[in-house]
Known about the structure:
The protein is built from 19 helices and 18 strands. It folds into four domains: 7-162 and 247-318, 3-Layer(aba) Sandwich (Rossmann fold); 164-229, no CATH class; 335-431 and 509-520; 436-504, no CATH class. The chain has a six-stranded mixed sheet, sandwiched between helices. It has a four-stranded antiparallel sheet with strand order 2-1-4-5, with helices on both faces. A hairpin with an 8-residue loop joins strand 1 and strand 2 (41-44). It has 527 residues and is α/β, with parallel strands linked by helices. 36% of the residues are buried.
Amino acid sequence: MKYLYSQLDKDNLKWFAKDTTVSSLFQIDLLKGYLRGLSDCRITFVYPITAIAGRNRSGKSTVLAMAACAFHNGQDGFKLPGRKVSYYTFSDFFIQSLEEVPPEGISIGYRILSDEWAKSKRLPKGVGVGLQFRRKKEQGKWNKYSKRIKRNVVFFGVERVVPPAEKSVSKSYRTRFSKQAPAGWEKKVSKAVGRILGTMYDDFKMLTYGKYHLPIVTANGVQYSGFNMGAGENALFEIFSTVYATPKGTLLVIDEIELGLHEDAQKNLISELKDVCRQRHIQVICTTHSPAILDAVPPEARCYIQNVSGKTTVVPEVSTAYAAGQLSGKRTNELDIYVEDDISAGLTESFMSGDLRKRTNIIPIGSPIPIIHQLAAKYKAPRDFECMALMDGDKATLIAVHKKHFLESLESCQDEEKAIEWLMQRLVFLPGATWPEQWLLRCLKSVDTGGLAALMGVKPEEFRTYLEEAMAAGEHNEIHLLSKRLCLDASGIFIIACRWLAQSQSNDFQSIHERAMKLISYSPPAE
């Protein structure tokens, strides 16, 4: 399903792009070096909430560490209980044993929208999107942290979901916690957590002892503390107490934001954070393995990180289905592609990128009329995934016939113009003005097939003779005759020939690839 932008989403997109007073982080570039397996890559932020998905060891937590280290702060800045300073450094996140080698030769670039930049020729008023760097030379130290733009930053790691009942320190101090003076935000916190969990709290206070704190609530006439809360409930009170205690414009960095929460609560959490973002202009950068979290944020707020053979790739504006498929290792079937037969299916699949193959399901339907009927059924009863018709190239001259059959299949249509527009967005044709087998052999004949002939175990001139004979075999008989001449299995020959041709004729499928990607991608919000 395409994401539906709410007014809240549009408001958040608007302020995030324009408010220079809160120093929003727009971009992180790992320009040089390897940081805990993460190689050169770019992460962009265009919405106040960004959810970063990826498999284990892909570098998600490293991105969070880089984000937390983007800013500095003054002595009077906000800090979590127990922290000595109001800012983060790389030593907070990158800790090595004696046997480990610390990261060296690192260069990180940050793009930040701020009014705190020193005046320069590029930013004469000291306001706008500026660039700052974090560098660490080999056998050296990170450059001065004090040069960073100032901003309140709060990092929540996975330890937040460890309940007090499982923390030995909290248990040993269980009788020493006492009430603190009301801060004024307690009611906001209890209402936010209540909306997320679908409950109503009559009262909420935060008990403290030194640097330790413990939530205590009353619900349905029963009072209980964090010692008797679930991990998710405890974590929510900690997060939202911090959100409302921090000054406007804080950067909130959260590792695995969905921990301890069921699916509905995860969606409600994002909804509450969106509202807080609009009210307090905070920025949230989080990691997740949850499709529910990804589904709850706009496409601009999602990205997927993957690490293949030491190379980091970042996929921005990823669909939830794609991310879920990558995490599970299964095809996502975001797009059904209806083709005429197995030959068309094999040809199409051979020219697709591996990424697109994972996101599509190619279905041989039969002749053009059944394909049109299938599209009509999809139009009348749309499902959660898209569809596209990919007919043989010799059917491209019959557009008027396809339109006629489509309207007839709909039986009754109140808006024929809209229906035809929908059809034409999904009706595509294979390259060439002929059937697939003939197009394939013609293309093979026009390129150097010496290597392909060697794969088939014959001489180049012998292979070209077989190609010419096969082309004259009659419609849809070409591959059968070629396999007979080569004494090889027809399906094997077809696959090898398609993959060979894909190396030199990929441009012929570019428009098909672009149409498919457009259908499975999400559209930006309407103005």
